[in-house]
Amino acid sequence: MPRGRPTKSQIRQNMIELLAVMGRGYGYEIHKKYIQIFPSCTREVVYYHLRKGVKLGEFVIESVRQEAGEYSWGTTVEKTYYKLGPNAKLTGDPRVKEFFNKR
Hints:
The chain is α+β, with helices and mostly antiparallel strands.
């Protein structure tokens, strides 16, 4: 058995299932949908797993966009859009499909 912490994570696997149905999404959007389907986790954990998933090839950064809007910090925001990468392995969680079919 290799040393160190295993790279497998249930939270990251749930995010893979989400992006498989969504197609693409940015961190805050993924977090909003995640907490509606799965047990609650913090937004920081979602961003951590997005960065870790990019390193592992489970997610790919599709684009980084500057979008205008009314925010407490100003009028623009930078959104990083993610999609599934080549190393993402789907398990077909029925909760995700059921959630999106209801909408």
